Amino acid sequence: MLVHLISLLAPLIGIAAAQCPDYLDYATLKHQPYSEGVRNLSYQRPDPACRTFDLPLLENKIIPHVMHAVPDPDLFRLFLNAYPNTLDTAVRWKGYAADSADEELTFLVTGDIDAMWLRDSANQMQSYLPLLTANSSVDSLASLFRGVINLQARYLLTSPYCNAFQPPVESGIAPAQNPSASEDHVFPTYNNSSVFECKYELDSLAAFLQISSDYYNATGDVAFFGKYHWVEAINHLFEIFETLSAAATYEPDGRVQNSSYTFTRVSNRATETLSNDGLGNPYRGETGLLRSAFRPSDDATIYQYLIPANMMLAHYLEATAPIMLALNGSTCSVTSAQMIQLAATIRRGIAEYGIVTIGGKQVYAYEVDGYGSANIMDDANIPSLLSAPFLGYLDVNDEVYQNTRALLLSDRNPYFMRGPVISAVGGPHNGPGYAWPMASIVRILTSDNDTEITEQLGMILNSTDGLGLIHESINTFNQTDYTRQWFSWANGLFGQMILDLQDRKPQILAQSFQ
Ligand SMILES: *[C@@H]1O[C@H](CO)[C@@H](O)[C@H](O)[C@H]1NC(C)=O
Ligand SMILES: *[C@@H]1O[C@H](CO)[C@@H](O)[C@H](O)[C@H]1NC(C)=O
Ligand SMILES: *[C@@H]1O[C@H](CO)[C@@H](O)[C@H](O)[C@H]1NC(C)=O
Ligand SMILES: *[C@@H]1O[C@H](CO)[C@@H](O)[C@H](O)[C@H]1NC(C)=O
Ligand SMILES: *[C@@H]1O[C@H](CO)[C@@H](O)[C@H](O)[C@H]1NC(C)=O
Ligand SMILES: *[C@@H]1O[C@H](CO)[C@@H](O)[C@H](O)[C@H]1NC(C)=O
Ligand SMILES: *[C@@H]1O[C@H](CO)[C@@H](O)[C@H](O)[C@H]1NC(C)=O
Ligand SMILES: *[C@@H]1O[C@H](CO)[C@@H](O)[C@H](O)[C@H]1NC(C)=O
Ligand SMILES: *[C@@H]1O[C@H](CO)[C@@H](O)[C@H](O)[C@H]1NC(C)=O
Ligand SMILES: *[C@@H]1O[C@H](CO)[C@@H](O)[C@H](O)[C@H]1NC(C)=O
């Protein structure tokens, strides 16, 4: 509400928006007071009057608790800057739908790009899950969650194959220009007043299930899901899933199948367009797996059965099915049994097609095509193979996962980046030589090894160029060469990890990192 209030009151009470610096610039500069550790980390929270959402529980309880648990001044400073980042900077607008007076909407930007990604917004909110309780107040965290879910439902109902979206018309905020997308050829066509970019990524669809089950799990608020457009959105998603389940490059008689989605872009980057005039590389039918044209990095897949996205979808179908069950099926055509069944089909597909043997050990492939080709790698963006237990798909002690993890965190993974600044998984999005702290965070979230966790924390602390924010990627030999100064999701995820360690490994947080 704060952002809304400030923009409404600004002309009256003289808090000109211009007085709040653009966080895009603010995040590249150092601000006092500096942390008292060797890294001399900047303070990066905006002035309280410029923050976009006020959550007293975070200020009065969580931050003091973590301050007590984390005596190291640099580690605490990084938490203090990073964890509130989405609330501080990314709630661009919060309000109501024009056609239903009490339907909350939250437009949550990814950070440095003025658009809302389905994946990012679901994950930005997930960081605050430990703080979420049932609450009908419009000032509550629960209301922010509901607003994101309602807006995502609207986006999915109009453009289910798109990944990033424009502000809702109710906000009065002008749509952002996306020069990279202006010449895209996409089928089905879309409206650029509501869509920012239209790359079809399976995990974007799964992200809607993720935030839905996250909200339900924490609040038990089933009534919310029976109002507005949630059931309609799930029904629509199921039509898409059925289309995708039946899809393959060729019909059984050899004819090329009509694809439900095609995309081409003129670009000098191979990962920005799809081969075969927008179809992508051929994939075989009846595998149980669902195709994804792009990865969670927004890069094109090489083989379209992206295993981590299928893992994510399987788990979140299972996690969302109880909502459908609790709604008693009265208004729905999709049943919880259908959701569980689709998840089981995907799980069988992963077991049958997604596992390959490397050096005598079974490992999960990043991508397969159903013909026998497999891409052995990982990409830092979640869903990744490294994150499979974090996604809830499998137990961290799963043998195939442990084999996969060992391979991915070694030079057998073509996108494992090494260097004196930080060693972590990267990806083609920023290219060889750039490691992603997000992958170090996931490594910590999936580890029980105190030495490994401590080492990763040290690397993350060393990778902020003194700015005290989590960057997207860093040159492993030069920490001043980094990408994205304002990447809210990664910041929130870092905080989520600190809260996880506070429960699981308080002795690690009690250490000095000086
Ligand atoms: C900390 O960084 C600031 C800004 O770069 C600098 O002015 C200050 O001297 C540094 N302090 C120490 C102790 O290094
Ligand atoms: C609901 O959220 C509001 C705003 O954060 C807070 O003031 C209030 O205490 C919360 N109520 C409950 C029951 O948690
Ligand atoms: C939408 O597309 C039209 C026609 O290509 C273009 O003139 C306009 O600038 C685009 N709008 C945005 C927000 O990109
Ligand atoms: C595109 O979306 C805008 C905003 O939602 C709407 O006003 C406009 O009518 C839409 N255009 C078409 C052709 O559907
Ligand atoms: C929330 O998730 C946890 C762990 O997966 C589970 O044990 C619990 O029963 C869930 N709660 C609800 C209300 O679904
Ligand atoms: C494929 O698309 C073409 C052109 O849109 C259409 O004429 C044809 O009937 C479609 N074929 C199938 C099998 O749906
Ligand atoms: C579903 O049915 C149960 C048992 O009849 C009832 O307690 C519950 O309120 C119903 N839920 C909804 C959302 O209607
Ligand atoms: C724990 O992690 C350290 C550092 O990565 C590694 O050297 C060690 O072998 C690991 N221990 C076990 C039991 O895996
Ligand atoms: C972090 O940087 C400090 C100071 O340069 C160095 O002593 C330490 O070994 C680094 N830690 C890691 C894990 O790289
Ligand atoms: C490190 O990166 C910065 C920023 O890109 C660049 O200006 C500098 O020259 C690089 N340093 C070295 C030693 O390559």
Structural overview:
With 514 residues, this protein is α+β, with helices and mostly antiparallel strands. It folds into two domains: 2-88, no CATH class; 115-414, Alpha/alpha barrel (Glycosyltransferase). The protein is built from 18 helices and 17 strands. The strands form seven sheets. Strands 3-4-6 form a three-stranded antiparallel β-sheet. The protein has a three-stranded antiparallel β-sheet with strand order 8-11-12. The chain has a three-stranded antiparallel β-sheet with strand order 15-16-17. α7 (141-158) packs across α10. The chain is globular. The chain starts with a helix and ends in a 5-residue tail after the last helix. Residues 1-16 have low confidence and may be disordered. Bound molecules: 2-acetamido-2-deoxy-beta-D-glucopyranose (10 copies). One 2-acetamido-2-deoxy-beta-D-glucopyranose binds next to α16. This is Glycoside hydrolase family 125 protein. Residues 1-18 form the signal peptide. Pfam families: Glyco_hydro_125.
